[in-house]
Write a structure and sequence with these properties.
The chain has 182 residues and is mainly α. It contains four helices and five strands, in the order H-H-H-E-E-E-H-E-E. It has two domains: 3-87; 113-176, no CATH class. It has helices spanning 3-32, 38-88, 90-124, 155-169; strands at 132-137, 140-145, 148-151, 171-172, 175-176. Strands 1-2-3 form a three-stranded antiparallel beta sheet, covered by helices on one side. It has a two-stranded antiparallel sheet with strand order 4-5. The chain is rod-shaped. The two termini are 44 Å apart.
Amino acid sequence: MTDTQHALGADEAATDLQAARIGLEEVVEKIARREATERDLEAAERRVRFCEARLKGALRRESEEAEEERLRTLEDLAERTKERVKAANVQKARKAAQRALERYVEACIAHNGAVDEAAGELLSQRGLPQGYAVDMGRDGHSVVLGSSSIRRLRPMVEVRDMGLEVLGHHLQGGYISLGDAY
């Protein structure tokens, strides 16, 4: 049965109930004029009770069907959300990001080892020629090797800054959104 048929069913039941109540009132008036009997009154009352039960049933069916439709809609939403979350594959991306960060931190450690070794060598020398030095700065040391200066890296700060930079690219309206491009 379609929603329209159910709506008509409830409307029809309400109309029948109204007619049964009017009929009951008419029987009561007829009894007062001695034109009807107790049997007529009982029949009119049964008709009213029947119409009330029919209307109650029609309204309950409408309510149940509306709830079923709401549940189907929620189940559809849940399924679509699960599919989209699965397609996003956050865990795989997270693992890849962790592996990349691990490689980056290892590279920073190797970089710092090379800078520290060069600094140790330079500090053990006396009278370094122009263009060679160890520069002690606020955030660690760097070595000056000819025309280039190589500073020590701070992996924790580097990773934090990279993360903030990436998040900053995706910051929209006060929350992080990766947008449609991702």
